[in-house]
Amino acid sequence: MAYENFGFEVDGDGIALITWDMPDRSMNVLSQGSMGDLADIIEKIVGDDAIKGAVLTSGKSAFCAGADLSMMGGQAGSGDGSQSKEERVKALYENNLKFNMLLRRLETCGKPVAAAVNGTALGGGLEVTLACHARIVGDNPKTQLGLPESKVGLLPGGGGTQRLPRLIGAAAALPLLLQGTALKPAKAVEMGIATKLVKPGEEVAEAKAWLKEALSQEKVKLGKRGPEVLPAAIQPWDREGYRIPGGGPQDKGGSQVFTIGNAQLQKNTHGNYPAQTYIMQAVYEGIQVPMEAALRIETRYFTKLLMDPRSKAMIRSLFLSMQELSKGARRPAGVPKFEVKKLGILGAGMMGAGIAYVSAQAGMDVVLLDTDQANAEKGKAYSEKLLDKAISRGKSTEEKKAALLAKIKPTTSFDDLDGCDLVIEAVFENREIKAEVTKKSEPKLAENGIYGSNTSTLPITGLAEASAKPENFIGIHFFSPVDKMQLVEIIMGAKTSEETLAKAMDYVAQIRKTPIVVNDSRGFYTSRCFGTYVSEGIQMLAEGIKPAIIENVGKMTGMPMPPLALNDEVSLDLGYKVRQQTKKDLGDKYVEGPADSLIEKMVVDLGRVGKKAGKGFYDYPEDGKKRIWPGLEELVGSNKSTEDVDIEELKKRFLYIQALEASRCFEEEVVTDVRDADVGAILGWGFAPWAGGPLSLIDMVGADNFVKECDALAQKYGDRFKPGALLRDMAAKGESFYTRFAPQKEKAAA
Amino acid sequence: MGECYIYDHVRTPRGKGKKDGALHEVTALQLASQVLENLRDRNDLDTKLVDDVVLGCVDPVGEQGGNIARIAVLNADYADTTAGVQINRFCASGLEATNMAAAKVMSGEADMAIGGGVESMSRVGMGASGGAWSSDPEIALKSYFTPQGIGADMIATKYGFSRDDVDAYAVESQKRAANAWEKGYFKNSVISVKDVNGLTILDKDEHLRPDATMQSLAALQPSFSALGEFAFDGVATDRYPELESITHVHHAGNSSGIVDGASGVLLGTKEAGEGLGLKPRARIRAMASIGSEPCIMLTGPADVSRKALKKAGMEVGDIDLYELNEAFASVVLRMMQSLDIDHEKMNVNGGAIAMGHPLGATGGMILGTVLDELERRDLNTALVTLCVGAGMGTATIIERI
């Protein structure tokens, strides 16, 4: 019998070899078709006396990367409107339970089934193998084994929350489930998730060997009245006297796992991430009952998650949009693929050094230029430092290090830039210096070459005035530290050509980062929005709200750092200068607020400019943790504690002020694609990932509601909360960003 | 509603709640039985007239499980007709048991009843009965569960009690308890725990450290800083964002001791007492229980005291003596601060920091202690209260006849 998605053959020993190999796909995914085939195959194994056992493997290089998340995204959230909410919930539950019960049928089919895991098994892929009686894994360094669902706001809904803790105990399983950690094969074997580590390529042979051993054993009764089956065909948790490793929630040790785990979950997520909460609940409740009931519990929480708008937003931004953008969804079509072979970097400071590292890592020849040879060498030494660290962690080798360092040429000579496909300028934020280096380096570019500026604040159009070819001039804004930050903000100057944009995006693809495309404006997109979060914190401080409340509430919104601590990091004098500049630019129109005098006092009178000075909003004792400066409350006259403020309102102020700025950027066409706005916010300044980005947040609240709430905030706290015309129009029409500005997928480059 | 009178009370001495404690070899059943036997014998009680025995027990599992009150009634050879029920209001169980017994008397359900409690912490470990609150994520997350010790440290941080403040309170508790023992203030109420031959196993509280000083306490490391840093301080600051961090000030020396013990309070109507020829020593003036914010957990005493005072139509100043279980020093400091109570009226003979806190039994013990002290000082009114797990408070106001 032939199956569409699986090969099926039985050898002379009665061992069926099931080879998962979906047609016309590079990767196996859990689809309706695959599941249907698998169901038929299981019944075939059960019903055919000639089949003694089975090996499940993959015909692809990976085993299976899990469910198709674009399909999941469709399942999630609001549905198509043709069903009532209750009907949708019921359908989701039943559909997902079916998959769970299919895997249950696999593990209770009465014959031993071994998974020959010849490559990466993630999510549903790993869950399928967990429902097998053994996992024989090839020791391939590229293989990843894990349940990453929680990273995109989901939970493993194919028994993962139940089988993993039953296999290795709740204490070991929970971190893997909550953080979505992927493991190398050796680690998976060490932890007891996989049965045996074998040489790559020998997975099937070894799985058959395991089966032969299993088939030679004496049959035992399954339960008191059950049929006689081979012991190897019974999962540990279906055996008489099974106890979960480390104990269940009602045992002393097991209960501690949850007590501490709950607290850490609250501390780390502040209740913002439903997936993590439901994983805890599914594990806690599920491991106390038999497997069938446990799978129902898991499916209930899985269904509840799929109905949660936060999950929908997370899947969309953190997975789908991020993938689309990384693959060049915003790249203009019709421009031939461009490859940077030689890259020039002007300025070997922190940013230049980081850009050199990631570019050399991508195989480019890098010329790292500075005014002073020692500085240029220092910039190169940064790569050395990173590589030494990687070697000490076993993630690189001396050979790789030597090869990479050989690609970076530190210099002071502009002649060395000769023939560069791309020059990125990363010198001081000073127009004159920037103009000078542009003029000096541009003539050295290769014929097709382009010029990028890594400025974070100065408008590109102005900088391009120094260029002889402003159409080839573009903003390529990196984030610090460059080797860790995934985002690159590409800024179009007034004259920048589509061709230059395509080339810049090809470069970003070469260094495997995620680009967003924005138009020129003060602070572009990310710096402009990010600033509002910090400003709102200072505003609250000036209102007399106790600093600890401001900081704790900042954390509770899901932002990676509290606002005042963040301001200390970027330093207060920077903000002070920006305020002075803005004041100058706006003249009479500038509205002086209480925050202005506060910052002036901190910077000018007290010299408390931030972490770099060892004093800012915080004190930084040499031995010990930073603490909020005890004099701060007195300085600002803090008199509002929790009894005087509404914590929920403070949270909204922090999030809404950023979302409003993002919506203004959209209205002003600084950003033009909802994916750029949301992904850029999460990757660029760490905007609360649980919300899926600032525009997703507005969609979740509903434009109508959002406008009402912002109007109320504007009444109390000032015009900065006034929504723009776009939001009011959306509110009036009942529109959302993702409906009104639905990204056009066909625009994506092939 | 009828009146309820207190006729008598006894308690066991409190044995160290460890394997080397004197009461470790005594079953929880024996502790409870000996309290009942003493109450019967010293009052010449016809136990047929005792309708019910209500005993508090916080970890009612194993030998303390399965309704130890009824089993102790049987073991103490009370009349078959005396019922028994075990209740759990966590740390206030002993007082709650007394209040429930009193309520039975007041409502007419019982003419005579005994309230009190028992806890052998050395034999049945603290937390042995489990429970959903800390481990079930559904409720732990929703209610910001933190352990009591972290709650006590939160109180100290939020209301400004320093390590010196809590240590000084603890030193004073030790002094007062030692003084009370030395002068024999407890002797009428503390029974001797006897063995099968009638020989005394323990007749005095075992946990006291009368030589404790600020210096000796200063050497102790805070008990909850590691746990706090690891996980729970982050929960605390989510619930109380006005706190930048939690200052951990509590340790074994300024927190209640882990001990074994049992208590009983004999209650009844006026008529029932008269029938037995007993003289009422006090009446129950008001009783109350209340829920409070569960994360900080231990601020219930002030709230429930206000509630009880209101029911009694009294003011803070109308109470002659206050007795608040010394679960942690900051709990007492906070109640005194909140209600503006003079330390000279609070826990005048020390408390659980010095003598220990046998969870389910304590409420009955401190009710008796303060009644004895009212008599000794010839004062009239006292308010007894305890802080309670999961954010509650229970209080009783008594008035001498």
Automatic annotation (TrEMBL), chain A:
Protein name as it appears in the record: NAD-binding 3-hydroxyacyl-CoA dehydrogenase
Organism expressing this protein natively: Tepidicaulis marinus
Family: In the central section; belongs to the 3-hydroxyacyl-CoA dehydrogenase family.
Catalytic activity: a (3S)-3-hydroxyacyl-CoA + NAD(+) = a 3-oxoacyl-CoA + NADH + H(+)
Molecular function GO terms recorded: enoyl-CoA hydratase activity; long-chain (3S)-3-hydroxyacyl-CoA dehydrogenase (NAD+) activity; NAD+ binding
Pfam families: 3HCDH (PF00725), 3HCDH_N (PF02737), ECH_1 (PF00378)
3-hydroxyacyl-CoA dehydrogenase NAD binding domain mapped to chain residues: 342-520
InterPro entries documented for this protein: 3-OHacyl-CoA_DH_NAD-bd (IPR006176), 3HC_DH_C (IPR006108), 6-PGluconate_DH-like_C_sf (IPR008927), ClpP/crotonase-like_dom_sf (IPR029045), Enoyl-CoA_hydra/iso (IPR001753), FA_oxidation_alpha_subunit (IPR050136), NAD(P)-bd_dom_sf (IPR036291)
Any one GO biological process: fatty acid beta-oxidation
Keywords: Fatty acid metabolism, Lipid degradation, Lipid metabolism, Lyase, Multifunctional enzyme, NAD, Oxidoreductase
From TrEMBL, chain B:
InterPro entries for this protein: Thiolase, Thiolase-like, Thiolase_AS, Thiolase_C, Thiolase_CS, Thiolase_N
Record key words, sorted: Acyltransferase, Transferase
Lineage top rank: taxon: Bacteria
Keyword field contains Acyltransferase: yes
Domain Thiolase C-terminal: 278-400
Residues forming the catalytic site: 91 (acyl-thioester intermediate), 357 (proton acceptor), 387 (proton acceptor)
PROSITE patterns listed in its UniProt record: THIOLASE_2, THIOLASE_3
GO MF assignments: acetyl-CoA C-acyltransferase activity
UniProt xrefs under CDD domains: thiolase
Pfam families, alphabetized: Thiolase_C, Thiolase_N
Domain Thiolase N-terminal residue range list: 5-228
NCBIfam families reported in the protein's UniProt record: AcCoA-C-Actrans, PRK08242.1
Similarity-based family: Belongs to the thiolase-like superfamily. Thiolase family.
Name this polypeptide is given: Acetyl-CoA acetyltransferase
Organism: Tepidicaulis marinus
